[in-house]
Design goal:
Blueprint lengths: L2 E5 L3 E6 L18 H9 L4 E2 L8 E7 L2 H13 L3 E10 L5 E5 L2 E2 L12 E2 L2 E12 L9 E10 L6 H8 L13 H11 L6 E9 L6 E5 L7 H6 L4 E2 L1
Parallel strand pairs: 4-11
Antiparallel strand pairs: 1-2, 2-4, 3-4, 5-10, 5-11, 6-9, 7-8, 9-10, 9-13, 11-12
């Protein structure tokens, strides 16, 4: 059963666990559980997903409860109007205290329209919250440095956060596509848990019916405390 964060006659939001697909896809044909079907059965009515979270990403996932609302919210996610999306992630290394990543991204093959390649503007703001230093050798270094960061999406491109963090050489831990395989495996063994350390923490969206701002928040799962427990610099910066 999904944890419901918000529900009215138009919208429903859930706290998606990591490892759960939003809906059925041919890219992961072996999966049998999907957030869309689970919420539909839980509410006893049709639901429409209005945005995407990767399978490995946890946190706030929003659905519409009718086609008109789905269309209105979907447009908001396309334009960013009345929308604020904040994520948290653990990344390799120690990024600067804050910064803006301005790096255009090509549409991924599964996101191309009419088969055309297209380069899109992509902006991500980041802020470092905590820094960790694990007593685990990595390459020529005697320790492994990681950091908890806050990420704000100013545009909504496919896999934008994962691609942008790779671009600045601070890939998200557990990212099998854009990260470092040996590091991911070593950290999974060290922490006793393997996952993509990316969490959709906060979402603000303008309600299409009331025009008021709906604020949604999904708290960290208990497993996030492992970083402070294992890192000897688990203090806020």
């Amino acid at each position: 059963m999904l944890s419901i964060l918000y529900c009215d006659d138009f919208l429903a939001a859930v706290d998606k666990p990591p490892g759960l697909l939003v809906h059925r896809t041919g890219l992961d044909a072996g999966e049998t559980r999907f957030a869309l079907q689970m919420l539909r059965d839980q509410l006893g009515r049709p639901v429409w997903p209005v945005h995407r979270l990767d399978k490995g990403t946890s946190g706030v996932l929003l659905f519409a409860l009718d086609p008109l609302t789905a269309r209105a919210i979907g447009q908001a996610f396309e334009t960013g109007e009345g929308l604020n999306k904040t994520y948290r992630a653990v990344v390799r290394g120690w990024p600067s205290d804050e910064g803006m990543i301005d790096h255009p991204l090509r549409r991924t093959p599964d996101d191309r329209r009419d088969g055309r390649e297209e380069v899109q503007e992509a902006l991500t703001r980041f802020r470092t919250l905590e820094r960790y230093e694990l007593p685990m050798p990595q390459g020529r270094f005697p320790t492994t440095r990681c950091a908890l960061i806050e990420l704000s999406l100013l545009t909504g491109r496919r896999h934008q956060l994962r691609r942008h963090m790779k671009h600045i050489a601070h890939p998200i831990i557990g990212d099998a596509t854009h990260g470092k395989g040996p590091l991911n495996r070593d950290l999974a063994a060290w922490l006793g848990l393997q996952r993509l350390w990316l969490h959709a923490y906060h979402l603000e969206v303008r309600h299409p019916a009331t025009r008021e701002t709906v604020r949604l928040e999904a708290r960290f799962g208990a497993e996030w405390e492992r970083w402070r427990e294992h890192g000897n610099l688990g203090t806020r910066t």
